[in-house]
Amino acid sequence: LPYSETDSLIPNEFYSGSTREKDDGHSGAPSESLCSMVLQILVPFLLAGLGTVSAGILLDLVQNWDVFQEITEIFILVPAVLGMKGNLEMTLASRLSTAANAGKMESTREKWMLIVGNLALKQLQATVLGLLASLMATVLGWMTEGKMPFNHIVLLCSTSVSTAFVASLLQGVVMVGVIIGSKRMGINPDNVATPMAASFGDLITLALMTNNSDFCLIYLYPYVLYLLDLLYLCLIPVWVSVSSKRPATNILLRSGWEPIITAMVISSIGGLILDKTVSDPNLAGIIVYAPVINGVGGNLVSIQSSRISTNLHLNYSPGEVPADRRNCHNPFHTFFGSGTNHRSAKVLLLLVIPGQLIFVHAIHVMKGGHTLPSPPFVVVFLSASLIQVFSLLCIADCMVHCLWRKGKDPDSYSIPYLTALGDLLGTALLSLAFLMLWCIGDSGSV
Of 212, 4, 249, 24, which Cα lies nearest the Cα of 117? Predict the structure, then answer.
């Protein structure tokens, strides 16, 4: 049989002809009680949420910096780069979590082949997508403003590529440690890895982006920016060479670009919405909450996507799905059933309201604590977040099974689409929420 992108993560039993009980409620992943699942999800979810809160506060502080005022296209770049970083981290976490649960990281040699190949692939993707994200921001900025100075284009490219490269390298190494450590401690990596990938990733990436752009604007001559861009591009053949020597990543080197590039384009459209709302004085304050609603939605749906993918890898051969998941006509089926994936979907949806209440309160405390969120603001914000997460969980259930039925690895394909849709949905719903508050004359605080 030809090698496919799902082969390296499928348990060895499929190749020996043995059968496994195909029950949606049971998989080869570590067994877990409801209490255990909630605790494993809750801690990294809260850490990830506090990371996005910190990112929102930072974005609120730096929006008045000279570089953001002079080159407003950076606001378009923010969701694209944060989303791209999240996609790469979460797909890495999901792939390695599935490999760990499938027993593919027991051998030291095989484990390090998987790790090195995936990290090299991620650096390649970060470099290319960083460049494409800056070009996308340039095009969207030119379409809306009618002009784009060349020095702004160079600064956007340098900022985007350098931020993506450094953030990807740092967080990739951390993510490998989290997955190996959680497996040794008997914790299901699917519950921990993807939210931990985003815990302070947004804050680190945003801090790198703001400082890189400000430094490039103030201190560096244009020719230095050209050399920086050239250096990152010269490393591309190295990453291609390393990742192509590993079977598990060689197939993704050729076929794994479609979802992450499409996701980057979708996130850029969300960035365009953010750019327009930030410039509207009637919608003041939206920039603080954008990373929070987008981050929470992306974190929760990535957990569900990773869990469904692991279940399919362990219990079904590629192209085969449970009988009740061969169509997606009823979105409520995602939440009602006896399987662990139905149970986790309900848990994740129920985390939205208490989690967002904690994060909204944390934002107001970090901003000085002199005011409290107004009741209308709390209602519309929670409603927007609940609609976003409900929609994403339903889409994830359908998308992951559909991808598996078509022989594609959901770990590599589903998370980029889902997190990008989360960015677009979150930004659009948040803009609508603030527009409703403006229409009724509510300032958002009391």
Answer: 249
Cβ atoms of 406 and 255 closer than 8 Å: no
Secondary structure (3-state) at 152: helix
Q: Which residue has the tokens 């709390």?
A: 378
Across the strands, what pairs with 445? 373
Across the 446 residues of the chain, what is the mean pLDDT of every consecutive 10-residue run?
A: 44 36 46 78 85 86 82 82 79 80 79 87 90 88 80 85 89 86 81 68 84 76 76 90 83 81 86 81 81 88 87 82 70 77 89 93 77 84 95 91 86 84 91 89 68
Distance (Å, whole) CA 429 – CA 384: 6
CA dist list (Å): 213 to 71, 158, 160, 326: 10, 8, 9, 48
> Against a cut of 0.85, is the pTM above it?
no
- Mind giving me the DSSP string for 231-300? HHHHTHHHHHHHHHTSHHHHHHHHHSHHHHHHHHHHHHHHHHHHHHHHT-GGGTTHHHHHHHHHHHHHHH
